[in-house]
């Protein structure tokens, strides 16, 4: 495995699966976090996820500059776990950044990254069409990103109810 894309719904087991796969590599693990703690509930989630990972994990915060973080930390002796791409898209969207340009840069970085890379994202396109324009734009941007990441990843796993289904 050089690059693995793990996608699934909320609470599907994506993060647990990705972490287990990263730890199974025996490489030095680096967690690239895209979340931003805007409220107490999110702060508690972040703390819980950090505790689940353990002290052997290095954590890098990259809410916006994801490609740069991957480029900086990727190496043959490391496994990078990015969690998650939909939070990254959210950060770009609410900051009014150029999402297509950021996605192009990310895909180029994934393609040339040295070492092992695991990317996690939420599948948001299986439900109803959102009611408002911002939510529809988010769903569309996430879907376009997922297509691009799946195309360049060496392996793609879908998680549902804690079970994985290999697509690629």
Classify the secondary structure makeup into a structural class. Answer: alpha/beta
Strand/helix succession: EHEHEHEHHEHEE
Largest sheet: 7 strands, mixed
What portion of the residues fall into strands of 2 or more residues?
Answer: 15-25%
Radius of gyration: 15 Å
Biggest sheet strand line-up: 3-2-4-5-1-6-7
Structure report:
This is Bifunctional adenosylcobalamin biosynthesis protein. This protein has one domain (1-164): Rossmann fold. Helix content is 46%, strand content 23%. A seven-stranded mixed beta sheet has the order 3-2-4-5-1-6-7, with helices on both faces. It has six helices and seven strands, in the order βαβαβαβααβαββ. It is globular and about 45 Å long. The protein has 168 residues and is α/β, with parallel strands linked by helices.
List keywords for this structure.
single chain; alpha/beta; 6 helices; 46% helix; globular
Give a short summary of the structure:
The chain is α/β, with parallel strands linked by helices. The protein has a 7-stranded mixed β-sheet with strand order 3-2-4-5-1-6-7, sandwiched between helices.
List the helices and strands and how they pair.
Layout: E1 3-8, H1 14-24, E2 28-33, H2 40-53, E3 58-61, H3 66-73, E4 78-83, H4 85-94, H5 99-112, E5 116-122, H6 133-152, E6 155-160, E7 163-166
Parallel strand pairs: 1-5, 1-6, 2-3, 2-4, 4-5
Antiparallel strand pairs: 6-7
Helix pairs in contact: 3-5, 4-6, 5-6
